[in-house]
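User: My instructor asked us to take a sequence, write out its structure as tokens, and then describe one feature of it. I'm not sure where to start. Here is the sequence I was given:
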Amino acid sequence: MSEAVVITPRSGIDANDDPLPAGDPVTLRGLVAPGNTLIKPGADSDLDVVDFIVYLPLMVSRPTGWVRTSTLLTENFTITIRDQVCVGRVKVWDENGRGGVEILASAKSGATP
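Assistant: Let's start with the prediction itself. The structure tokens for your sequence are:
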């Protein structure tokens, strides 16, 4: 069963290293799985534990029409899952218009929306 998740773009920091206001949140529905996986990007790097894995459709309906889910995600965003604010990394797979978006989400960052 799908669950609502909230994606909030983060705008970065200003010249004084103060956080800029977050962008407008977007609510999407997807499948949320436990993140009991370990990711090892390189042979000598640290292991990265994620709390959730969220699977979203490749395309979502918005008031302006159908858009690619990946266009709603910035490089720097938070995703709120089950009242936990997480930071995430995105992986998009697209096989001729079929596929989806996977978000690896970690709540251990202390991020706030």
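For the description part of your assignment, you could build on this observation: The two ends are 25 Å apart (CA to CA). Try explaining in your own words what that tells you about the chain.
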